[in-house]
Amino acid sequence: MASLIRFHGFDVLGIQEGLINQLEDISTALSEYARYGKGRDDGGNAGEHAAIFYKKNALTYC
User: Fold this and answer.
1) Burial group, residue 45, by CB count within 10 angstroms (0-12, 13-18, 19+)
2) Sheet of strand 33-36, all strands in order from the earlier edge strand to the far edge
3) How far is CA 49 from the centre of its chain?
4) CA-based nearest residue to 21, from 13, 29, 12, 9
């Protein structure tokens, strides 16, 4: 998945229903991306996330 994302060079991508361990794996594999999102169960890390990943050198989070 990481090589496919790099091949297409997405600036932004969304993850639906991702669990924190899955998001952490993606973050590790795609260190050029930052992410924003919160778990639906507690507004932190618990439960599924609808996270946004964005390329650090293309966009900034305000």
Assistant:
1) middle
2) 12-18, 49-55, 33-36
3) 9
4) 29
Tokens, residue 1: 């998945």
Yes or no: say if 32 and 57 are a contact pair by the CB < 8 Å rule: yes
Written in H, E and C, the secondary structure of 23-40 is HHHHHHHCCCEEEECCEC
- Let me know: does 37 contact 50? Beta carbons within 8 Å: yes
Is the pTM higher than 0.85? The answer reads no
Q: Tens place of pLDDT for every residue, the chain, 62 residues? A: 899 999 999 999 999 999 999 999 999 999 999 999 999 998 888 989 999 999 999 876 66
Task: Record the tokens describing residue 33, joined without a space.
Answer: 């991306």
